[in-house]
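Q: Hi! Curious about what Cyclase-like protein 2 looks like structurally. Here's the sequence.
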Amino acid sequence: MDSLPLPAFLYALALAITFQSLAASATTTAYPSIPGAASVDCSVAGGDSNLIPPRREVYDNGRIFDITHRYFPDLPVWDSKDGLGRHFLWLEYSIKNGSSANGSAMMLGVHTGTHVDAPGHFYDSYFDAGFDVDSLDLEVLNGYALLVDVPRDKNITAEVMKSLEIPRGVRRVLFRTLNTDRRLMFKKEFDSSFVGFKEDGAKWLVENTDIKLVGVDYLSAAAYDHSVPSHLAFLESREIILVEGLKLDNVPEGLYMLNCLPLRLVGSEASPIRCMLIR
Ligand SMILES: *[C@@H]1O[C@H](CO)[C@@H](O)[C@H](O)[C@H]1NC(C)=O
Ligand SMILES: *[C@@H]1O[C@H](CO)[C@@H](O)[C@H](O)[C@H]1NC(C)=O
Ligand SMILES: *[C@@H]1O[C@H](CO)[C@@H](O)[C@H](O)[C@H]1NC(C)=O
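A: Let's find out. The predicted structure is below.
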């Protein structure tokens, strides 16, 4: 340090701090494995020789949170070790092969990633009657929502639901659980030990609250070993909408405006969905 003139030392220090904060922002980035996925500010990336698309989790200085997961090969898929894989999206024609434009196609299970369940998912009669995702109520999917933290040592039982003391009148709740802490949606291998609603928890919610939108942070609202009874309890009335696989990391607990928009897939009991929270 003695040999370094002061201005040079300060410059080195400034650089070190810059790199440190860059590194810090990179580690808090949701998808460190995607090249260019770090939240890049255009003004920093800049320049024609350095074309890097911005990828953000938060917009407008913390006002808008994207709570949707990206569709990419390592996204976990129900009961699979392999994740989504790289073949769900492909170029059907491309500029490099002489076409005037690039055109991709995709093939995707409708329960992949952040998605919504319609009543037809667990009720055959509702499926046949046409209660598909196109019939879901956009009013339920859009409006004030509470993001709450659930005790981390239990699945969501009636007792847990009771302890959360969610006031009557609250119609949309996003439940953040141990799944978020364990970053399960960022792990390619499906993990059946995720936290979800036990049957008595689902029934308690149906009978004792006004909640019509239930949001959860892994691929199913129901705990793995209660998959059928919990879904049946939620979907029976055809009034409750389940939004699953939400990305609730780094969003403060509290009240938000929620916007969730499914695709109008006629005849489908689920759809990928884009959801965001607005302060
Ligand atoms: C167009 O397709 C080429 C492959 O032929 C690919 O390298 C390029 O990234 C594509 N461009 C866009 C905008 O997707
Ligand atoms: C371009 O065409 C070749 C030959 O038909 C094919 O093997 C390749 O996959 C195509 N690539 C793209 C990006 O479309
Ligand atoms: C939640 O239930 C699953 C079974 O569905 C179990 O594997 C897991 O350990 C439970 N989690 C907690 C925190 O009790």
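A: A fun detail: The domain at 115-278 is CATH 3.50.30.50 (Glucose Oxidase; domain 1).
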